[in-house]
Design brief:
The structure holds two protein chains of two kinds. Chain A is mainly alpha-helical. Chain A contains seven helices and three strands. In chain A, strands 1-2-3 form a three-stranded antiparallel β-sheet, with no helix packed on it. Chain B is mostly helical. Chain B folds into two domains: 1-125, Rna Polymerase Sigma Factor, Chain: A (Orthogonal Bundle); 126-185, Orthogonal Bundle (Arc Repressor Mutant, subunit A). Classes of the chains: A mainly alpha, B mainly alpha. The interface between A and B is large, with 38 and 42 residues.
Chain lengths: 154, 185
Amino acid sequence: MFRCKITHFFFNIFSLKAWQSFLIRYHIQRCLDCQKELASMEDVRSLLIQESEGESLEGEWLEIRVKLKEEKRGEKHIFWPRLRWIASVAGLFAVVAIGVWLYFSNPPDKSPEEKNLAERFRINYIRVENKPAKAFLFRPHDSKMIIIWAEKNS
Amino acid sequence: MNVIEMTKPSDMNDSQLVSICLQGEVDEFKKIVGKYRGKVMALALNILGNYEDAEDACQDSFIQAYRNLDRFDTRKSFSNWLFSILYNRCFDQLRKRSRFYNFFKRVKSDPSFHSVDLESNQSSAQPLSQSILRELSPKERTVLFLWAEEGYTSEEIASVLRCSSSTVRVHLFKARKKIKSILEK
């Protein structure tokens, strides 16, 4: 009996190697004391809920079928969210592209101050090393400073 | 003529039924549902102990099985594969249920809450066999069902539970011992 208890202890606690497990199972199957401590297959069967007919197959099948069909329909709709996402990104790009194009083709009107500046400040001709050159005028924001950049014609 | 076409549905084995389902309509799957629903429902009831949850788990398992039918290896046992899906679904249900009970306990602790005690009502309505099964863990109940009702070996049970056969033997041993001690009281 004491040996059985030790066997049970090892069987419960440790993960045994195949041969050790086999020896313990062999012991449990043969030992009457061990068998007395275990419920038989019949005891277990009497407690378990048995297979029963319950609801008709048709009723259950109808519910499963509806769910399967809904799922199939859902699979088709999966395409639309993806397409919607692509369409919204493409639309955004189009709006940005049109905005950039409009800005560069029709630059916004200059402020009155800038207009005055153009009237007051004008370069008709610029030469670098006795050759005609390009002139660029810069006026930083919030400043009355004007920078003139002259570049040789290449 | 195709061999499958010549065979009656009742005579077909699982791999034939699966290959027909893969070729054809959803309706072919009805044969599989018809063949396994009793066993599947019984296992779900033994794990969950509640008819509504068991029914949901069964339907979900059949739907998941149908969805993954192309992944099923026809050389293996279909029932093992289906039980494995069901076992996972049942454990999902149990997790959901434990979340619900935790929430319910928190709500119940609120002094302004007045309602019928769900848990005590459930346990009082249970037959003796159910209350004995409640002493076991869901894993032990699964092992016991597959062993006693389906006659599965520990290796077959291990393939359903996705664990080692020695773990299954320990679960089975503990469960049988627990039942015996409860029955002797």
